Each structure stands twice: as structure tokens, then as C-alpha cells.
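Bench notes, afternoon.
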Amino acid sequence: MSQPSRFAFYRYLSPRYWPTWAGLGLLRLSVFLPLPVLQGSGRLLGDLFRLLPLSQKRIARINIGLCFPELDAGRQRRLTRDCLRSVTTAIFEAALAWWASDRRLHRYHRIEGLEHLREAQKTGRGILLLGGHYTTLELGGRLISLYVEGIGIYKPAHNKLFEAVMAQARRRIFADLIPSKEMRKIIRSLKQGGVCWYAPDQDFGRQGTVFAPFMGVPAASLTMTARLARLSNAIVLPYSSRRLPGGEGYAITLLPPLENFPTGDDIADATTVNRAIEAGVRLAPEQYLWVHRRFKTRPPGEPQLYPLRRDRRLRRYSRLLFALSLPALAYTGWMAWRQRDREY
């Protein structure tokens, strides 16, 4: 694990960061909550958010309708509801990822397919953990770090205070942090036998992508996974994480390495990558990040699938959103204070 640098909090004393400080403070307190209460607070927050006309709710509804046409309208609505609950639960789970002890996290999870990781390590080659944007992404990274020292690949956040706190926490977990755009560093690390987590399942436009099916829908899919494997001779190991029902904890699933990959055919390779991510999605469909506009970029001649962003409307509702979230946040803070003397 890399040594975290000293956190320069004085750089973030401007009033524009005060709401972020308040939110991070509540997150830090939430670590003291028992897991069922922490997850329940996240679900409550999701139900409050669901009352508002947010674009994320419409995006999730569209994505689920496209990817699960076999479900009737009622089941699609329930899946959308559960997805929003999962997204807000992930906010509290980030606190576990950043600040909970290893001892506590060992009690909260199980791992499936660890033998695939151990066999890959015996080869001495680099390992590319092929993940997806599951809502348990942050906590899943922390849990897999209990078994292997890896490299964290990240995209810088817009909020500088949030990014600084996140980077500080992740440096205690990973051997190194590499921005997602610095591909040369990632390739160098893989060539040296490093383990890197990589999730290529978001829509970044047409550059560096091909159209390949994802959950049965043509999607702009990055070719970078095949390129990384080819240039570094790394083993590509599909990996997913999910939340278990009833507050039982979490499961990490490692699948066998991708065979005959890469092939040199960009569309075939992207299809293979998408299928590996789909396998993780189908283990817990409600825990995928359906609020992302995964099918924003369309093949030539196809219409747009999502409504235009309504930033002004979202700003209009931001104060109401904050007011609605206060009861859930206050309850979380109160429960965390009551549990403060417990060992976590």
C-alpha cells in the first residue's frame, strides 16, 4: 500500500466546500453504524430521491426497459426503484471502503473463485481485473485489496475536496493510484506483474470505441481492454461485487480468465468484454449503475434514446432535494453517535 500524503485541509476552507465537509462528516460517522442500519439509511435516502423528477430516474427506467424487455412494466418499475436505492446505499458504503477496519470487513464478505486469482498470480504476468460500474464498486475495490495488492485506476472528480479525501483514502488501500488517462503507466505496471482494476463499461463517445452488444443493445464499447492485454501480455480476469440480501454483507466473484483474448478483432473482443461484465450484472441486476447513459452514443441512423439534460430544472430542485435528505442524514448521524463506543 502506498503511503498517504499529509492532507492539506486548509486548502478547502472556502464556503463553497462547506456542504461537502458536512456530507463527508456524516459519512465518517456512518462507519459506526451496524451494517443493516447503514444499508437501511441508504435505501431510505433512495426513496426520498425517487420522489423528485430527476433525470437519473428517467435514464434508469429507459436503460432497464432496453435491457430487460422480457420483464413486464411492474417488474421494470420495481427494478428501477431498487436501482435508485442501491445507488444511494453505495454512498454510505463508500465510508466503509475508506475508513472501516480490515477486521470488520473480513466479517462482512465472502469471496468466490479466489483460486482463479491465485493461479493467475503464479504465472508472474500482470493481471487486469475486468470490472464494471456496479454500485458496490468502491467497497468492492477495498474488499479485493484484502487478497491482493493492486493498482487503483481512477477518474478525477469535479469536486476538489471530495477528490482529495477519496485519493487519501484510496492510497491507504492500493499500492498506487493512476489516472485513467495515463495508459502508459498502466501498461508499465502490468508488464511488471502488477494487478490493475479496470472498468470499460461507460459511454465515452465514438473515439476508441466500436459498437458491440451490451445486454442485447448496441453500445459504444471501448477497445482499450484488448489493447491493454495485447501490449502488456496481461491476464484478463473478470471480477464483480454485489450486496447480499438481509444485511448479510457482500460477495466478491472472480471468474476464469478470458480465453483466446485478445483476438485482434475489435468487435469480437469488445463483445467478449461486454459478456463478462453482463455476467456480473445478472448476479444482481438492481445493483448495476443504470443511472449512467450507457447507450448515449448510437450507431449511424439510430435516434437518441435519452431526453436532453435539464440542468436548470435540476438546480431548481437542488434545495428541495437537500431538504428531503436531511431526515435520513440526521438519523444516520444520531445512530452513528449512539454506536460510537463500539470497536470497528
